[in-house]
Every structure is written in C-alpha cells, then in structure tokens.
Automatic annotation (TrEMBL):
Source domain of life: Bacteria
Family: Belongs to the methyl-accepting chemotaxis (MCP) protein family.
Record PROSITE patterns: CHEMOTAXIS_TRANSDUC_2 (PS50111)
Keyword Cell membrane among record annotations: no
Record protein name field: Methyl-accepting chemotaxis protein (MCP) signaling protein
C-alpha cells in the first residue's frame, strides 16, 4: 500500500523559509547564537531546522574553541589544547592543526626564552668583563701617567744638570787654555833668563877672578831657568791631558744631553697619550676607558630592554 504524499501548507512553508533565511543571515553577520525555532507544519521542515541548528552548533563550538586556544597561546599558556569532542571531518583536522601549531609555538617560545636568558647572561658577563677591564685600564693609566710625569720631570732635571755639567767642563777647557797661555809666557821668560845667564857667564869669564862670584850666580840663574822650563813642560803635558779629557767629557755630555732630550720628548708624548692633551680631540687612555665603559653600559641596557 503506497504512503500518501505529505500535504504541504504553503503558508507554513513560507514561514519556515523566512525563519531559516533570517537565522542564516544572522549567522553570516557573526551572530552564531542564532538558532531556527521550532517549525510546525511538516516533518521535512523539522529536519531542516535540526540540520541547520546542528551546523550552527558545530560552527559556534569550533569558533569559540579556536578563540580560546588562540587567546591561551597569546598569553603563553600553550598547555591549553583544542577540545575536539563532537568535531568530525574538516573541523577535527583544523582543530588538530591548531593544536600542533600551539605545540610548535610552545617550543619556539621556549627557545626564545632560552635565547633571552642567554642574552641576559651574556650581557651580564660582558658588562662585568668590560667594567673590570675599564677599571684596570683606568688604574693602569693613572699609574702610567704618574710614572710618565715623574720621568718627564726627571728628564728635564737631567737635561738641566747635563747642561750645567757641559758648561763646567767648557769652563775647565777655557781655564786650561789660559793656563797654557801662562805657561807659554813662563817658557818665554825662562828662555830669556837662560840667555841672560849665558851672557853673564861669558862676561864673568872675561872678568877673570873678579867675575868668579858673578859667574856662580849666573850659573844658579841658568839652573833655575832650566828647572822652570822643565816644570813648564810638565805643566803643559798635564794641561794637554786635561784639555783632551775635557774634550772627551764635552763629547760625552753632549751625547748624553741629546739622548736625555729625546727621552724627555718621548716621555712627554707617553704622558700626553695617557692623560690626554689640551685639545678636545686629544683623548687620553683614562678618558677612553670611561668612554668604553659608558658605551658598553648603553649597549648592555639596550640588550636587556629588548
């Protein structure tokens, strides 16, 4: 026996279509809480209502769970998993993909956290090392500057002493020249005295016995002249020795003075490099240590803030 076809009420059908259309439009506009109310009139309309409401239930559940999982991941709560109960097909596949993505983000976040901790540790080590080095450099620069300034003062005093010594030896050489001149005069006097003694001896011999006493005196005068001449030669030899020594001493003192001047220039250059010069661009080692410390502190602060 054949079933009789279901009688369709046109007014009820229009109402069902209107309700379904309204709910679908609300769902398209983002209202996933909209549902088709009970439709009276036919069994097919009831099945349409159940199918549409079921679809909306799955879509609503998927959207809500997706949002909750994304919010948890954004807050770093990667342990929050996508609940897949009641989801099938593409819904379950998308849910599993979101869960897998959260797991990947969790591992990436852990790696970033490890990198951040390593960066912080590196920044701490860098800051500690640079601060230690800069303090050591500043301390060494202070000591070097003090030593260099002391050496510069010593070099200046040494140059002054060497110049005074050079002047003293030069005066000694001048005095030796004056002694030589005096000895030359003595030698000339001795030579004249010997000549006069010779003439006196000749005249005494001509006088015979009357000039004998005068001859003795002339002989004594000649001996005195000879002794004077011999002493003059000895003095001249000593003067020559003194002059040669003075010349050697002058050469040595001049060389030493020049070396000390060169050392003084070098030491002053070292002192300027350590302490800095009078110009703005002449930055010394101590200032460089401070600049290094400031720059590294700024760099470390930037790393910690990032």
């Amino acid at each position: 026996m054949k079933a009789r076809p279901e009688t369709v009420d046109a007014a009820a059908l229009d109402e069902a279509v209107r309700l379904v259309t309204e709910v679908c439009e609300r769902a398209c506009n983002g209202d996933l809480e909209a549902r088709v109310p009970v439709i009276s009139g036919s069994e097919r309309a009831a099945r349409i209502r159940i199918a549409i409401n079921g679809l909306l239930d799955h879509v609503d559940a998927f959207v809500r769970e997706s949002g909750a999982a994304s919010a948890a991941a954004a807050e770093g709560r990667f342990h929050r998993r996508f609940l897949t109960q009641g989801l099938d097909g593409a819904y379950r596949a998308a849910a599993e993909q979101i869960t897998h993505s959260n797991q990947v983000m969790s591992r990436t976040a852990a790696q970033f956290a490890d990198a951040a901790r390593a960066r912080q540790a590196l920044a701490d080590e860098l800051e500690s090392a640079v601060l230690t080095v800069s303090e050591q450099v500043a301390t060494a620069a202070t000591e070097m500057g003090r030593s260099a300034n002391g050496l510069a003062d010593f070099a200046r005093v040494a140059v002054a002493d060497a110049e005074r010594g050079l002047g003293t030896v030069s005066s000694l050489r001048t005095s030796s020249d004056e002694i030589r001149h005096a000895v030359d005069l003595i030698n000339q006097v001795a030579a004249q005295t010997r000549l006069l003694a010779l003439n006196a001896t000749i005249e005494a011999a001509r006088a015979g016995s009357a000039g004998r006493g005068f001859g003795v005196v002339a002989n004594e005068v000649k001996n005195l002249a000879n002794e004077t001449s011999a002493s003059s030669e000895e003095i001249m030899s000593q003067v020559n020795t003194v002059q040669q020594s003075a010349a050697d001493a002058i050469g040595v003192l001049e060389a030493v003075t020049n070396r000390i001047r060169e050392m003084s220039v070098l030491v002053e250059g070292i002192a300027q490099a350590v302490d800095g010069g009078h110009q703005i661009e002449d930055v010394g080692l101590s200032q460089l240590a401070e600049v290094l410390r400031a720059e590294v502190s700024r760099f470390v602060s930037t790393i910690r803030a990032s």
